[in-house]
Amino acid sequence: MKYLGIDIGGMSVKCGVVSRDGSLLFKDAAPIRAGEADTEIVKDIAALAEDVLRKSGTDKSEICGVGIGCPGSVHDEKGVVRYSCNINFRNTPIVDMMKSLLNVEVVKVSNDANCAALGETLFGAGNGAENSVLVTLGTGVGTGIVVDGKLLTGNCSAGAEGGHIQINIGGATCGCKKRGHYEAYASATALISQVSEACAKHPDSLLAKYALEHGVDGKTVFTCAQMGDAVASETLQRYIEYVGAGLVTFANIFFPEVIIIGGGISNQGESFVKPLQKYVSENVYGAEYNPEIKVVAATLRNDAGIIGAAALCF
Amino acid sequence: MKYLGIDIGGMSVKCGVVSRDGSLLFKDAAPIRAGEADTEIVKDIAALAEDVLRKSGTDKSEICGVGIGCPGSVHDEKGVVRYSCNINFRNTPIVDMMKSLLNVEVVKVSNDANCAALGETLFGAGNGAENSVLVTLGTGVGTGIVVDGKLLTGNCSAGAEGGHIQINIGGATCGCKKRGHYEAYASATALISQVSEACAKHPDSLLAKYALEHGVDGKTVFTCAQMGDAVASETLQRYIEYVGAGLVTFANIFFPEVIIIGGGISNQGESFVKPLQKYVSENVYGAEYNPEIKVVAATLRNDAGIIGAAALCF
Question: Which of A111, A190, B39, B117 has its CA at a distance of 20 to 30 angstroms from the CA of residue A83?
Answer without folding.
Answer: A190
